[in-house]
Amino acid sequence: MQRLWTPWRLDYVTEAGTTAYGGCIFCEALKRPEPDPLVVHRAASAFVILNKFPYNNGHLMVVPNRHVEWLADLDAAEMTELMALTQAAERALTSVYHPHGFNVGLNLGKSAGAGVLGHLHLHVVPRWNGDTNFMSVIGEMRVLPEELPRTAERLRAAFQSVAG
């Protein structure tokens, strides 16, 4: 077995989930008087936001509005909407970026790799054949061909058609 070490990610993994004021980045995104520039879609009990530190263009997170840590903390309506928005995210990303596949998942708790502790969020990452992310390993960088404001603009339009 071979191991690839990425020690430069430790600061991100341990600190990226809080704001400069120590608050929750997801709760603060919902509280802003102007819509957060990374939020691409809002629904009754959950929303979709771009990952500020994406693995690929279009890396989305589906987040319940309520600050809960575990899937078991969601009620049935919240869980249903979380999954419906995940499905809408897949459709929106497919219509805009035409990926060959997706990584969809949760990291529950610090030991599981959660970068934002305390507020459940589901990652939806578009993937393409031949996408190996080798630059992260050898160059300590990610190559993203599109800026986040343009990604948000494109995905907001797509969510209008797929999520109603």
Quick structural summary:
By secondary structure, the protein is α+β, with helices and mostly antiparallel strands.
How would you describe this protein?
It is built from five helices and five strands; from the N terminus they run H-H-E-E-E-H-E-E-H-H. The protein has helices at 10-15, 25-31, 76-97, 134-138, 148-162; strands spanning 39-42, 46-50, 60-64, 101-106, 122-127. Strands 1-2-3-5-4 form a five-stranded antiparallel beta sheet. It is globular.
Q: How does the SSE layout of this entry go?
A:
Blueprint: H1 10-15, H2 25-31, E1 39-42, E2 46-50, E3 60-64, H3 76-97, E4 101-106, E5 122-127, H4 134-138, H5 148-162
Antiparallel strand pairs: 1-2, 2-3, 3-5, 4-5
Strand content: 15-25%
Strand order of the largest sheet: 1-2-3-5-4
Sheet with most strands: 5 strands, antiparallel
End-to-end separation in angstroms reads: 47 Å
Distinctive features:
globular; five-stranded antiparallel beta sheet; 164 residues; single chain; alpha+beta; 34% helix; 16% strand
